[in-house]
Amino acid sequence: MIQPLMPSKFRRLALAPSAALCGLTMAVPSPIAAAGAAESDRDSYVLLAPGSRSSTMSGSIEDMNRARALRTGQEGLLYVRQGGVAIRDSATLRQAQAIFEPQQALGARQGELGSRQAALGRRQASLGKEQARLGLQQASASPGRGDELGRRQDALGRQQDELGEQQDVLGRQQDALGREQDRLGRIADAKFRALVADATRRGVAQRVD
């Protein structure tokens, strides 16, 4: 089997990052908005926004189902699995939402950056297919035709290099945002635990499990 000739400058494709990165807080359209750190780092919780289907959570689908079962109508509710408590106090719910907002905003920026990476990846894949097609032609081309195809391959290789450099820039930006997410996550962990503990002391955290 004849192997297609590929230019040495051909770059690997960059995959778009998953929106479900560990420790990532993201704002996702309803019915579920995934947010918060890994379950091992923060108590599993579900925060249901009042008068809305939108929610913020860190946990499992069972946690979401439990929170919805505890909810009356469209009331706001915070369910924390580890403590087995539900909080309906509006002031506490507003504080909880404020804790997660910085991570959600940063998550939206990460999502937008991921979309740009995905678009570049599609362009790289398209160029790769063209390079492969030309490589097959080179395998059986006459010397003159082979030279022409080689020049076209070089041009595609330069385009791949340019796209690869753009991917590198976006990748460094994603790394920086990821480090910031880690920092914000540690801050949010401490604030969230303190908030739930305070709500428990004040008697606004109802034991449900």
| Spatial extent as radius of gyration | 25 Å
| Backbone shape | elongated
Low-pLDDT ranges: 1-41
Elements, N to C (H/E): EEHEEHHE
> What would you call the structural class?
alpha+beta
What is the helix tally?
Answer: 3
**Mean pLDDT, all residues:** 83
Q: How many runs of DSSP E, i.e. beta strands?
A: 5
Percent of residues in helices: 55-70%
Main sheet attributes: strand count, strand direction, barrel closure: 5 strands, antiparallel
What share of residues are in beta strands?
A: 5-15%
Walk me through this protein's architecture.
- This protein has 209 residues and is an alpha+beta fold.
- 57% of the residues lie in helices and 9% in strands.
- The chain has a five-stranded antiparallel β-sheet, sandwiched between helices.
- It is elongated.
- 26% of the residues are buried.
- The N terminus is likely disordered.
